[in-house]
Each structure stands twice: as structure tokens, then as C-alpha cells.
Amino acid sequence: MEQYPFTEKDLIQHNQLWHSFGHHGCFSAENPQQVLENINRTSRQAYSFLKSAACLFMTFGTARAYRHIGTDQTVANCHKLPSAEFEHFCLSANQVSTMCQELFNRLWSFNPSLQIVLTVSPCEALERWPPGQPGQ
User: Fold this and answer.
1) Burial of 74 per CB tally in 10 Å (0-12, 13-18, 19+)
2) Which residue, 66, 72, 91, 113, shows the most beta carbons closer than 10 Å to its own?
3) Is residue 133, in this structure, part of any structural domain at all?
4) For residues 66 and 87, is the Cβ–Cβ distance under 8 A?
5) Could you tell me if 63 and 90 are in contact, meaning their C-beta atoms sit under 8 angstroms apart?
6) Which residues have CB under 8 Å from 40's CB, separation 6+?
7) Integer Cα distance of 135 and 43 in angstroms
């Protein structure tokens, strides 16, 4: 896994705050330098932790995703920007499988002894198909 230093070009400004499409809103701030310091510090900590981790639990939730039209960037967080700025799409099973295999290979190259445990979130299925409803 690479130690990618985030820069101001990785941020967007909306409602007087600076945000990263790849990060939770708790990283957002009025000052872009504060956002970058927090993101880069946390990324360095995650890098060190993952390098020595024995086990990683990963929970899959949905294949639905959003792409910011202006930057052509798939986002982890829309930060309450207008929905017209995003395109919704759904990953195919083959796309998810390929992306996961590539991720696992990168993780094992980075930390060969890492054990990966996969779990599945029932929330998406329960929302769409409540118990006793058609579609199960």
C-alpha cells in the first residue's frame, strides 16, 4: 500500500468547509491545511497499523456507488453536495470480484502474514427485502 500524500488538489470546498470525497465528514474543516494535516496523519497511522496487523475484517455492504461528475471521481462521501453533481451506478459482480482480488493481492504484498476475514452486512438486504416480503 502506498503512502499517498494528500494535497489541496484532492479537496473540494462546499458550505465554507473543505472536504475530501474519500473521507468521512469528521475530517472536514474551514481550513484546507487542517484537513490535509488530519488526513495525512491518519493515513500514516493506518499505514503503520496495517503493516503489522495480524487480521483485517472487511464488511461489504452494497455495490451501489456514486461518481462526482465534475471530477470523474468515485466518492466515498458526497458531503451533502447537490445530487445533480453525482452519477449513480452499480458495480457488477465481476467488477466487485476483480476489485477485491486486486485489493487482496496488494494487501498480501504489503503484509504477507495478514489474514483477511470477510463479512457481509445484512442491512442492505433487510432494507430492500424485509422478512416475509417477496424477493427473499
Assistant:
1) middle
2) 66
3) no
4) yes
5) yes
6) 5, 6
7) 41
Q: Count how many domains the chain has.
A: 1
Q: Which three cell numbers stand for residue 62?
A: 452494497
pLDDT tens figures, 65-98: 999 999 999 999 999 999 999 999 999 999 999 9
Domain membership flag for residue 98: yes
| Helix then strand then coil, % of the chain, to nearest 5 | 40, 25, 35
Query: β-pairing, 55-60 with 115-120?
Result: parallel
Q: Tell whether pTM > 0.85.
A: no
Distance separating alpha carbons of residues 29 and 13, to the nearest angstrom = 10
- b/e string for 86-107 if b means 16 or more Cβ within 10 A? beeeeeeeeeeeeeeeeeeeeb
Segments forming the whole domain that contains residue 60: 8-128
